[in-house]
Amino acid sequence: MPFRSGIAMPGGQPSFRRLLLMRILLLSIPILLLGVAVTFRKARTSLLETARQNLTESAIRKGNLIQSSIDSLQTSLAIASQTESLQAGDMARSQLFLEKLLPQLPGAQCLQLTDLYTDQIVASTCGSEPIKSLDDHPWRYQPDSSAINPFQRSVLDTQPRRRVRQEPMNSQLDLVISTPVYTNDGRPRYGLTVQTVLRQIEVAQPWSLLGYTTVIDQDGTFLSHPFPEKVGRNIAEEGDRDRFENILENTARGDGAVRHLFNFSGDSTEWLAGFTPIEVSISPTEKRIWTVLAVTRLDYALEGLKSISQILALLTGGLLTAHMLAMLYIARDISLPIEKLGKYARHLDRRDVKARMPKNFQVRELNQLAEVLNSMVSRLEDRANELESAWQEAEAANQLKSEFLATTSHELRTPLNAIIGCIRLVQDGYCDTREEELDLLEQADKAAIHLLKIINDLLDIRGIEQGKLRLFLEVVDLRQILKEVLELQAVEIQRKQLRLTAPDLDEQILVRADPARLKQVLLNVVSNAVKFTDEGSITIDIRRNQKSEFSKLVSDGVSLNGDGGDLTNPNTRPQDWIVVSVKDTGIGVDPEQQDKLFRPFVMADGSTTRKFEGTGLGLAISRNLVERMGGTIDLYSEGLDKGTTVEITLPVVDDSQTSTFDPDTKADTPERIKVSS
Prior knowledge:
about 675 residues; alpha+beta; 12 helices; about 45% helix; disordered N terminus; Circadian input-output histidine kinase CikA; coiled coil; Sig_transdc_His_kin-like_C; two-component regulatory system
């Protein structure tokens, strides 16, 4: 598909496609090259670490092989020294024995049996020239063979008189081992000497990490080296002197590791050497530390890096080519959807309500952008719907306010008209007798009390909303307050001929509350039960509950002050609760309307023509008062015409708080607790 340039922009500005292509290439190509460089570096590091590990393990294997070979030679010589043929010193028998023993010893070149006292060769497999002089042998002062472990008598020498010729790049270790041969009477008589050459498998070619073998004595002398001319030289003569000294310091501590050598072969080639220490017994009384190295060229150890470099070069070229082609198509594929999005946004105000931004783009981010635009438009539509709903709710609230004002004005006018009418009848002299005047004045008094109750409710709800309503808590007898409430409602109950069932309590029920407010709550609940019940009964029940957990006793925003304590303090939380249940058989409450009854200004019937009077504030005030006194109030009803049950729960005062309570004098009542909203 041919590449098309973007739309020309005024003022010499580049097109979106061209700008996008240049930015992507400027950012992506350096990152791609950096990634290739990091990959190459990581591969080299990994190969180098593998080579180090393998060379260290190779040095350990070489050292173990050298040590085991020396131990095997010393053991074989010690066993051979115990044979009767050698102890007898018979030349013929000794010669025959040595010729049979020679092939059995690893790397053995020559075997000789030497008289320690005459220094004459008794038997030899390599001529009459001695391998090593035994004039200063250590067994001269050890005549008792039983006092010495026969496997610890050997003497090892690394400087034979005649060295075996070494091929270049084939390391070998020339050793001379001697052990004493004792006579039957326990005196050292002969010396059994072997010259051996220990060779390792030498592979130091590309891909191989076995390495050449190099052995260095603890004094710095090369005992074995892949370059024959360096055997017997000291590390002080080498160009890598400091590195060899560091190696010897590490092996003296028993450590093994890897070091880079830059003058191992006498030129600028870099070598990699893994090393490990071995402990070799030179004599029955002396041991020396030899350092065994596995050495290979660094380019051989990193031979695998060549193929990796070729692969990375091919991969980089392919990626750059594919990247350029991909950027051309990506720039085109991205620019076209963006143009569609711009067109959609420009015509948003004229679009169809059901129209949505197309989401069939081949780029996920652009599809997401289209979804975001659609979501944004949907949210704007939702916000418009929410504004309309809020407007409707405001209208409903305004209607509720109007209903409340109408209801309240009606409730205020009714008793006020009654007061004015009764007073004017008395004032105008329409009463014939004193009893009629008193009857009218009594009716006016009742209407005034009712009017005062309405005004008090309005003041209370205003005080609750403004946080200025205060309570004064003290220990009171719930039984006495309930008795006073029932006496106030007795006339109305008898007038409606309702059956009242109330408990006959013999003991005091002490709670901490504001007596006037508690009486107001109980009176409101009982009067509601009487008001909404035309026939049937009203049942009052009092029971005590035990709760294991402290419920929510004080509503949000309520604080307790004063010296009487804090009801929210866990140390003073009561565990006993008193529940006052007021159950009637009246009109009941629709389940959908029950939650609304505790909201101020809300009534099940808000019209001015409803059957029952009231402002709808009583239960809202009661719930606030009860919760601030540490209790709860709940209403239950199964439905219309199925009665209603109201339960008031208050915490019971414990014995420590009631020990000095006198219900008549209250002389020892604790200081009242002022509760502010």
